[in-house]
Description:
The chain is of the alpha/beta class. Helix content is 25%, strand content 28%. The strands form 3 sheets. It has a 6-stranded mixed beta sheet, with no helix packed on it. The protein has a 5-stranded mixed beta sheet with strand order 4-5-6-7-8. The longest helix is centred in the first third of the chain and has 13 residues, at 17-29. It starts with a strand and ends with a strand.
Amino acid sequence: MFAVSNGEAEVTAIDDSAQGFRRYKELQAGGRTAGMVAFPNTLLVRGERDYLVDPGLIMQGAPVIGALREHGVEAGTIKDVILTHLHFDHAEGLVAWPQRTVYVHRLETEAPYAQILAGVLEMANLELLDGEEGELEPGVRWLRTPGHSDGLISLLVDTDEGLVVIASDCVGPLPEYFDEMALPEDFGPERDELLTQWKRIRELEPHMVIPGHNPPVVLD
């Protein structure tokens, strides 16, 4: 997280993304020019095939590959990537995974911000998802959960512990918002839609929900 004033930059390393967001909003409220970089959660879903979910920013490439290796998975064996949406912080790292089958909702590819990633997407074998829900394989489903972006999908993964919902940026930016099922009145035009999607996710009675940037939330 960083702030700039009087020609000087103040850079602070934050261990917790929620803490960083709170500090970012405080600086903004105080009239400071502020910004932050928050790595998204990159996940490995293991089913009949291995799926890499949201490879993130370019700078996450080596750490993700290293983490996969710690789990006994070589990067070259992963042939399928799922992008929950096409905001650059979740999809830019796709450049490290060329010629993969990439699942993304068609609505995301039609959004203006997708142009930022046009070159990266040209290297992928796109499998465009249409409609409101679908199945990639038994036990790995997707659900369109708009609000943060129109074509954002949440993944529904059946596990031995119960249903895990990979909700991406449908859930956030602060963990207490989802805990309390409430957003500030001035949150933005997407506020009502997000609350609707949160209710849908809760009604699925998941064991765990994984937000886009914060730690997983265990609900049972």
